[in-house]
């Protein structure tokens, strides 16, 4: 084994073949749900796959009065509860040796001095080489203070032959003005190529498979345009309510929470032209072209819809309405369901509407992109033979049951000519023996490698807010969200929105 080679690395594991060099990760807000359920398990899984260096450093920063041993125990419990790969004591001991903890408040100068000392200690004792990423798993209101402290303590400054990077969780502002303000704050401390905005949806295997499916196969790309596509539906449905997120969710709503980031990114990837290469700059250029070409409907009252879930029954259980949830005022007009029509004003997509919808307390949990094709121009069958024939569709399932479904017409067995919809299904779990890396695994590794293709640039964030802001402003001036029953697929106004265009929502 050569010097510096990771003894846990499996050279036959091609799922995440790149190995991070000497480095460390500092997590602010390490006591929160995101860190416990996603970030800490992802770090362990990367270690288990042999994709982090043996001397990797993991530092937690929070206001808890913990020491490194206690934080290590918390991390171990999070790993055992939520990691995707088997728990192995040898792997854990390797990771545990690099775990540190710094207690303190964000306005505590002394705490950041201790953090600087801790980072320097990791460089000396673990060989992290001055390479450190700072993960801000904290509310956006804390970003300016944390960035200021990182700058004043010297932690944000890259040194010759070493790097410092910052990772920002959504939301990236709550409108265009705040997004620009947030970007100004971060860019004063870190250069743009050192800022990584996390959208975990872009780390999902199926989202990346969309690009592979389109551009690696002659089968799909020739029909991926307005000549053949009737419309596109992008859905993110959840079957749960807001739970304990009232403090965050009220005043944000479905449009800001997921349409502005997740769904508009999926739209951009679906509609983009073929990039020159799959490096970060080329991908961003094509996504920005799409977002720049997005056109909102002229009549927002006819081509948008919003709703709030009411009390009722779902899956045999009585559930609360949005206004009955803890912490939600009775006067709240925050939407838990949002649907909008957008058009992409390019030659490829002229006249093809993109329908985006997201909501809570819907029929089931599912995220998918459905490309629905025009009907065949001529059907040489009797009308009765094709009564049950719908439109062809390619459906990319992002979660759960990641895969792709192709819907087309086939003859029903028998003596009569009867054509009915059938599906051809590709599922990751059936086609590959390897399990897909969890999104945060891939994204954390990309941060440590300095590889940014899956991270939205600040210009993409601004373009998304430019699309959404006028719609939210319109909603705030026109009445209240429509009520809808739990377990359904949203308010009647959403069905009416598509009916005006002569279309219906897919039933995922």
Automatic annotation (TrEMBL):
The keyword Oxidoreductase applies. NADP(+) binds at residues 63, 105-106, 170. The active site is at 262 (proton acceptor). InterPro entries: G6P_DH (IPR001282), G6P_DH_AS (IPR019796), G6P_DH_C (IPR022675), G6P_DH_NAD-bd (IPR022674), NAD(P)-bd_dom_sf (IPR036291). It comes from the Bacteria. Pathway: Carbohydrate degradation; pentose phosphate pathway; D-ribulose 5-phosphate from D-glucose 6-phosphate (oxidative stage): step 1/3. Residues 26-209 form the Glucose-6-phosphate dehydrogenase NAD-binding domain. It is an enzyme of class 1 (oxidoreductase). It catalyses: D-glucose 6-phosphate + NADP(+) = 6-phospho-D-glucono-1,5-lactone + NADPH + H(+). The keyword NADP applies. GO terms for molecular function: glucose-6-phosphate dehydrogenase activity; NADP binding. SUPFAM superfamilies: Glyceraldehyde-3-phosphate dehydrogenase-like, C-terminal domain (SSF55347), NAD(P)-binding Rossmann-fold domains (SSF51735). Its EC number is 1.1.1.49. GO terms for biological process: glucose metabolic process; pentose-phosphate shunt, oxidative branch. Keywords: Carbohydrate metabolism, Glucose metabolism, NADP, Oxidoreductase. HAMAP family: G6PD. Belongs to the glucose-6-phosphate dehydrogenase family. Catalyzes the oxidation of glucose 6-phosphate to 6-phosphogluconolactone. This is Glucose-6-phosphate 1-dehydrogenase. The lineage of its organism: Bacteria, Bacillati, Actinomycetota, Actinomycetes, Micrococcales. The gene is zwf.
């Amino acid at each position: 084994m050569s010097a510096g080679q990771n003894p846990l690395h499996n050279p036959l594991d091609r799922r995440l073949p790149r190995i991070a060099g000497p480095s460390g990760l500092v997590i602010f807000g390490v006591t929160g749900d995101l860190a416990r359920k996603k970030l800490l398990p992802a770090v362990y899984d990367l270690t288990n796959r042999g994709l982090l260096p043996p001397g990797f450093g993991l530092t937690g920063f929070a206001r808890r009065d913990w020491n490194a041993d206690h934080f290590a125990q918390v991390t171990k419990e999070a790993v055992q509860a939520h990691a995707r790969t088997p728990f192995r004591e040898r792997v854990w001991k390797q990771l545990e040796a690099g775990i540190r903890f710094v207690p303190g408040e964000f306005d505590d100068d002394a705490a950041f001095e201790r953090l600087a000392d801790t980072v320097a200690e990791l460089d000396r004792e673990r060989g992290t080489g001055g390479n450190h990423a700072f993960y801000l798993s904290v509310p956006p209101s804390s970003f300016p203070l944390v960035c200021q402290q990182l700058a004043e303590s010297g932690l944000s400054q890259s040194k010759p032959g070493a790097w410092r990077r910052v990772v920002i969780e959504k939301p990236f502002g709550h409108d265009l003005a705040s997004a620009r303000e947030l970007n100004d704050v971060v860019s004063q401390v870190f250069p743009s190529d050192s800022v990584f905005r996390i959208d975990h949806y872009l780390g999902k295997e199926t989202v990346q498979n969309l690009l592979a499916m389109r551009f690696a196969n002659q089968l799909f790309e020739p029909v991926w345009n307005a000549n053949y596509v009737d419309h596109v539906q992008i859905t993110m449905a959840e079957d749960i309510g807001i739970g304990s997120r009232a403090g965050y969710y009220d005043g944000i709503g479905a449009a800001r929470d997921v349409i502005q980031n997740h769904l508009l990114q999926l739209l951009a990837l679906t509609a983009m032209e073929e990039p020159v290469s799959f490096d970060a700059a080329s991908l961003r250029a094509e996504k920005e072209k799409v977002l720049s070409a997005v056109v909102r409907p002229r009549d927002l009252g006819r081509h948008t819809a919003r709703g709030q879930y009411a009390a009722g029954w779902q899956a045999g259980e009585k559930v609360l309405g949005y206004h009955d949830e803890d912490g939600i005022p009775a006067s709240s007009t925050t939407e838990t369901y949002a649907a909008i029509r957008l058009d992409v004003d390019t030659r490829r997509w002229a006249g093809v509407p993109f329908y985006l919808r997201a909501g809570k307390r819907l029929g089931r949990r599912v995220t998918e992109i459905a490309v629905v094709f025009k009907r065949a121009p001529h059907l040489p069958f009797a009308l009765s033979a094709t009564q049950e024939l719908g439109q062809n569709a390619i459906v990319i399932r992002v979660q759960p049951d990641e895969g792709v479904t192709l819907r087309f017409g086939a003859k029903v067995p028998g003596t009569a000519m009867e054509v009915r919809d059938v599906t051809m299904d590709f599922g990751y779990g059936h086609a590959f023996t390897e399990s897909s890396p969890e999104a945060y695994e891939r994204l954390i590794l990309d941060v440590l490698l300095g590889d940014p293709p899956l991270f939205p640039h600040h210009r993409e964030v601004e373009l998304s807010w430019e699309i959404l802001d006028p719609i939210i402003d319109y909603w705030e001036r026109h009445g209240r969200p429509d009520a809808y029953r739990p377990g359904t697929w949203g308010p009647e106004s959403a069905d009416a929105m598509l009916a005006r265009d002569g279309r219906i929502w897919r039933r995922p």
